[in-house]
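Work package 3, deliverable 3.1, input record:
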Amino acid sequence: MPAADQRTPGARWTPFLFLLPFLFFLLLFWVIPLVGGIKMSLQANGLGQAEYVGFAHYKALASDGRYVTALRNSFTYTLASIVVIVPLALWLAHLLRATFRRLRPVMTFALLLPALTPPSVLAVLFLMVFHGKNGLLNQLFVMPLGLEPVSWLKDPDFILSGLVLQAVWRWTGFMTFFILAGMEGIPRVYYEAARLATGSRWQHFWHVTLPQLRPVLLFVAVYLVVDGFSLFSGAFVLLGGSGGTADAGLLTVTYVFQKTRFFEYGTASAISVSLLPLLTLALWVALFLRRRTA
Amino acid sequence: MSAQGKTVRGALSLLLLGPFLMAVFVPFLWMVLGIFKTNAEFFQPLTSAFFPAHYEWQNVVELLEGKWVPFWDVFGNSLAVSLGQAFGAVTLSAMAGYAFARFTFSGKRLLFVLAVALILVPRQLFAVPLFSWVNELGLSDSLLGVMLPGVVTGLGVIYFTQVFRQVPEEYLQAARVCGAAELRVFLTLLPLVWPALLSYGMIHFILAWHEHLIPMLVLTSETKQTLPLALAKLYDVSQRTPQGVQMAASTFAVIPTAVLFAVCHRKFKSSLSDMLVH
């Protein structure tokens, strides 16, 4: 780290000059609302209520079956998205590298289209894939196999899989792009060194590509965790803010939305705040893994 | 590898990629074709009526004339909010990233951790307190109330910290020897890192373009709406908007981000490649 600050007098506050605009907006639009949220979670429900109720909302959550369902669903949804998307994106990136160079940009772009599309549009397109009997999934895959058409967004056994598929459809191309960029940044020397030592392609992938891609993969995983636990769009646009039949698709963020809609601001804030330790833990694990393997 | 082996491998990968490309592309094709369909055609099973019987531009005309939503107002609002937010986010993050990368100061680690933590606390979770605070600031139903909260981004700060770390020290020394003030040094560096500025601006533009929840809470009057809100209104069953109009609006909503990405794609990827590994 260059020590630029010893050179000129008055330079001690120079870095803060650069940080000032950021810190100002950070305080204004993050810290204040966050503190407001924590305060709200300790107050009674309802508009304009300011009666202090302590940890009552949190205690109520602990015995709230729907909260537990929402947490469990979010957890499954996030884990399943990561488990499907990361290997798939790795494979697609590999295929893109192997295919004709000329076609690569066009194909990367095509794969990325869903990530460039506003979530509400995405939902409409996605409904076409899922929607009842006439959807492509049923018409092309389920019915030709002689099976009953699946009602993807109504049948509680399939809702969560439907949501995961939505995440896969939306994000895989985006993650492929990042992984591809990462792969292209790996110095050729590493592969040449590996070629002298060992033979197979698989070993190259395992011993050179994968370790080099660690930062990219961490980014991808963290992004998906945040998306799974707190982004509004995915589940909202598909299920219209409900949890689906028997709450099978109820995610934490949907639950927050429902509470907000009925002006149960205290409870809604308590749910939000209760997720913070979880998200922090996820980040900590990610950083820990990074340090350990580095 | 021989040239022939390369061709075989290329063709084989193409074959394997095919289904994935189809899965992504077919829905978009269906969307664009949907512009020309009547409602009756639209609701037929996909496999029997994928292409419209006639190609007429009526639905596009209706949309652009503002028969269903004040389209140009809405489109302009979205553009203004997203551009403003992207510009603000790039400016703030680049400055903060420069400070983190190039100076040592007390409290640096704490501030950096705070920036990282930002990524994990999505605004959506605290939408209600944010909304009431925006109201208190007198920004309710104004585009600024949507634009300003979005200029703070943890991802941006981390990105630019990494970017400025990679600028060779010689450039800085050269600038400093000339006696330039630190702000001047920063400004002279900007042309050097413009692919990074452009890349992050693009990412942020896309995120802002998609934002739904905050605009929904803050904006109330019809001419102040952004595109996702107008789309939600068009999709609403009770509005009885023709499906073709809905598809036209959807297509127009995808075009700006798609064009932006197509234009910046190469710069973005090389700037990522430089940074992601190491």
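The CA atoms of residues 163 and 274 of chain B lie 9 Å apart.
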